Amino acid sequence: MQAVWREHGTTVLLAALLLPVLAVAVCRWRANRRVIAEVGLVAGSLPWAVMLFTPQPAPRSIDLVPLHDLPSWISGDLGTGVAQMGGNLLVLAAFGFFLPMRFAAAASVPRVLLFALLTSTGIEVLQWVLAIGRVSSVDDVLINTLGAGAAAMLSRRWWVRIPEREMTERTLR
Question: What is the value of pTM for the model shown?
Fold first, then answer.
């Protein structure tokens, strides 16, 4: 846990301070759901992107065995395990929460899971290709996707709903 604070404490603190400010600004601006979703997508994902692509002083590695890293997170230092599991659950949480609110095409849990799976896979591949000292792991993909799916279920009541008749009329125009 100390390593997480040492490496990413500034990013975490800035995000924790700026996200409420952005939320108040958007609400005072009386923005519609689409604007709120766009701000949420960017503001909720940017801190994680900074953390995920910060180079580490280690050689890159890859772990393609599903559920291989999870036991080490659980059996190791409790703080590190919580940081690993919690961090990986939150990486795509804003993505899962706001994507179906912004885009009607993503407004189902299976679609959010598919988009999150593809996005998380892309992140892990980029970490490998860029050789920034990160571990590219199937477990990261699974936990990131799970976090996005859980967040999508939390935002379900605010998803964009376009009646089928209106969607057909838009398509015909």
Answer: 0.77
Query: What string of DSSP letters covers the chain?
Result: -HHHHHHHHHHHHHHHHHHHHHHHHHHHTT--HHHHHHHHHHHHHHHHHHHHTS--SS--EEE-STTSSHHHHHHS-HHHHHHHHHHHHHTTHHHHHHHHHH-GGG-SHHHHHHHHHHHHHHHHHHHHHHT-SPEEEHHHHHHHHHHHHHHHHHTGGG-----HHHHHHHHH-
Across 2-11, 46-55, 132-141, the highest mean pLDDT is recorded for 132-141
Query: Which residue ranges make up each domain of the chain?
Result: 2-172
- Percent of the chain residues past pLDDT 70, beyond the cut: 71
